[in-house]
Amino acid sequence: MQDVNIRNIKRLEELRKKLELKGLDGALICKRENYRYFSGFTGTLAYIIVTSEKAYLLTDSRYVTQAASQAPFFEIIRIQGDALPFICDVVKEQGIKALGFEETFVTYDFYVKLKTKLGKTELFPLLDIPDEMRAVKDDGEIEAIRKSVEIADRAFEYILAYIRPGIREYEIAAEIEHFMRESGAQGPSFETIVASGWRSSLPHGVASDRRIEKGDMVILDYGAVFEGYCSDITRTVFVGGADSKKLEIYNTVLEAQKRAIERIREGLYSKEIDGVARQHIADAGYGENFGHGLGHGVGLEIHEQPRVSPYSNCKLVRNMVFTVEPGIYIEGFGGVRIEDIVVVKEDGAEILTKAEKAPVIV
Ligand SMILES: [Mn+2]
Question: Ligand 1 center to residue 87 CA distance, Å?
């Protein structure tokens, strides 16, 4: 039996335990990353229904064969037209009385129709059970993320030789994405950010038509998807040289990141990690210039649990995978961000990203 199926079975068992604890006798899962996580099915349309004994996967004619092969522990049901009557048939046949659903994912329209059609079956929010399960990765998931990070790391090394005055930001983005695709990635994990010169003070400056100039700081923030798993890396490079102010900002961000990563261990609240970086940046006089959270979980989605910010209430658990990405952004001057992906260990963190972090001048 394939490893992947064993993992899916384990996840289903855990889901069932959690449903029971909440007094639910079934769950309806429609979000792609979630049904993939529990079933192994990678297609773009499916609904899975899980009860204490059974598991169904509903999909349309495009995917019936694929679903049967990828999700052998699910009974496959072929949807024709509207999915709702097929979902309701299963729920009724199985006598589900309390059905959990993904309250932060399904549309209001779907919810209202489902509620009306189900009649006596009550609907309850799943309260992020799938998201919380997915936050803690198993070995296979960490391996996939590791490979995804490796591709992104190699893209950084590759792109350094390509960045020079006169070239446009979107050309750099295209080159990075092309390299990653050729290296086995399924695609970029989000729209590639190339923010140069004054634009580097935009924390999410997706590549524009601006031409690189000598003296620019260039923020490169991108990632690959490999076996469904995302990577996310940011490096800031200097074009032609760096003055002392730029280097001071760079080293402040780098030191903030280093200190935060050193603090990571199982059992701490993620906001404590955020606080370490934030404090260092504030002490250097740039507190107002670091507006976003320190990081976010990465997995099947580019942004997932755990959140690492002053507002997060999440406790770190071994094998959580998240980014650590402090930044300093000064309007009209420019910005620096440095981002790595880490895995939480019992008494520390493993840094997956290997790309150079000493200031790079191209
Ligand atoms: Mn990120």
Answer: 36
- Tens of pLDDT along the chain (362 residues) come to 566 788 999 999 999 999 999 999 999 999 999 999 999 999 999 999 999 999 999 999 999 999 999 999 999 999 999 999 999 999 999 999 999 999 999 999 999 999 999 989 999 999 989 999 999 999 999 999 999 999 999 999 999 999 999 999 999 999 999 999 999 999 999 999 999 999 999 988 899 999 999 999 999 999 999 999 999 999 999 999 999 999 999 999 999 999 999 999 999 999 999 999 999 999 999 999 999 999 999 999 999 999 999 999 999 999 999 999 999 999 999 999 999 999 999 999 999 999 999 999 99
Rounded Cα distance between 324 and 155, Å, is 19
Instruction: Measure the CA–CA gap between 211 and 177, rounded to whole angstroms.
Output: 18
Question: Model's pTM, two decimal places?
Answer: 0.95
Neighbours of ion ligand 1 (CB under 5 A): 232, 323
Cα of 81 from ligand 1 centre, angstroms: 38
* Cα 326 to averaged position of ligand 1 atoms, centre (Å): 10
Ligand 1 centroid–CA 296 distance in Å is 7
The CA distance from 89 to 118, in Å, is: 9
Q: What is the whole-number distance in angstroms between the Cα of residue 161 and the centre of ligand 1?
A: 24
- CA 164 to mean position of chain CA atoms: 31
